[in-house]
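ok new one. same drill as before - structure tokens go in, u give me an amino acid for every spot. 253 of them this time. try not to just spam alanines like last time pls lmao
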């Protein structure tokens, strides 16, 4: 039957993709991350040229794994794969609920995670269009997001947390510009801004991980903004910056 043929071709493609997943640290992670539905999503993205080979894990996070991959033109990309099974979908629901962009929500785990990925894609695109320094997003499919690889020669840029800055004061200035772009021009509150979600590209900040970002008129937006600002003021306290200083910068818009 045609469908059988298609399925077995799909299976072959999936097996082929599995084989071409290099450097995934161990099979436990692999089988947890690469369930059948996820392999199907990867296949859809591969078919469209967004992914050719998955080259290895950049980071295994709480809810997602980030891989370095290559697209069909040979360019490095980053692939973020959310694990449907271990995602905290109650927390996700809290951020989705109240966001006018996602009016009617299906409440099952899988749908919530898929909406979450779509939200991350939209947020990153919107922030990028507003001039913020964020990874360019290329595509998403269900629980998989493909974006610009932030790094050089296959080596990802470090998190702010693990990097000793040459000039923290200058970096802080640039970071406040980014906060302004995201809050004032994109109209978003990042909502998980900290030294873990800022990468350092040649001594300049790049903001990542925007799945939980909300629009400014989200009922919790002010609270989330306070928390973001507090994190940055804490990290840069040696530069003499206070929460109030940063808030004043953002209140003007
Ligand atoms: N586009 C990218 N290019 C290079 N490295 C990346 C990219 N995106 C993420 N990373 C790396 O992977 C790590 C985890 O990514 P991210 O913060 O988006 O996921 P997470 O914290 O696991 O997600 P979540 O908080 O939604 O569970 C980052 O700290 C960063 O080191
Ligand atoms: Mg993160």
């Amino acid at each position: 039957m045609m469908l059988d043929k298609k399925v077995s071709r799909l299976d072959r493609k999936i097996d082929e993709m599995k084989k071409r997943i290099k450097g995934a640290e161990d099979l436990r992670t692999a089988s947890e991350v690469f369930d059948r539905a996820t392999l199907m999503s990867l296949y859809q993205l591969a078919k469209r040229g967004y992914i050719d080979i998955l080259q290895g894990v950049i980071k295994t996070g709480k809810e997602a794994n980030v891989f370095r991959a290559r697209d069909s033109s040979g360019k490095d990309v980053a692939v973020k794969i959310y694990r449907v099974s271990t995602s905290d979908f109650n927390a996700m629901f809290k951020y989705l609920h109240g966001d006018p962009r996602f009016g009617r929500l299906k409440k099952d785990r899988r749908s919530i995670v898929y909406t979450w990925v779509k939200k991350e894609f939209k947020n990153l695109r919107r922030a990028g269009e507003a001039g913020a320094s964020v990874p360019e997003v290329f595509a998403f499919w269900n629980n998989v997001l493909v974006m610009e690889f932030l790094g050089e020669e296959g080596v990802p840029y470090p998190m702010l947390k693990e990097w000793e800055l040459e000039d923290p004061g200058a970096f802080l200035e640039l970071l406040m510009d980014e906060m302004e772009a995201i809050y004032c021009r994109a109209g978003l509150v990042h909502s998980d801004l900290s030294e873990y979600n800022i990468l350092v590209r040649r001594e300049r900040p790049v903001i990542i991980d925007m799945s939980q970002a909300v629009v400014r008129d989200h009922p919790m937006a002010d609270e989330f903004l306070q928390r973001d600002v507090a994190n940055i003021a804490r990290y840069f306290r040696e530069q003499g910056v206070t929460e109030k200083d940063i808030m004043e910068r953002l209140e003007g818009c």
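Residues 58-59, 61-64, 66, 78, 80, 135, 147-151, 156, 159, 196-197, 208-209, 211 surround adenosine-5'-triphosphate (ligand 1) (CB under 6 Å). and btw The first strand starts at residue 53 and ends at 60.
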